[in-house]
Structures are given as C-alpha cells and as structure tokens.
Specification:
The chain is mainly α and about 40 residues long. It has one helix and no strands.
Length: about 40
C-alpha cells in the first residue's frame, strides 16, 4: 500500500470519528438540557 494512500485512509478515518463524536455530543447535550429544563419547571 502506498504511503499517501495510508495517510489518506488515516485522515478520513479520523474525520469520520470526529464527525460521529461531535454528532453524539450534540445529541447528548440536547437531551441533558431538556432533562434539566423538565426538572426545573
């Protein structure tokens, strides 16, 4: 496997991980915020 292809795969895998992690964090933040608002009211 050429070195440039390995680097490309590593970068795309890292970008996918960051995208999934940020999407999961935003969903968790929304649910936590809705729970806090629900408890206060």
């Amino acid at each position: 496997m050429p070195a440039w292809l390995e680097v490309l795969l590593n970068l795309s895998g890292y970008a996918g991980f960051v995208a999934l992690a940020s999407r999961g964090a935003s969903q968790a933040d929304e649910s936590a915020a809705s729970r806090i608002c629900g408890e206060e009211s």
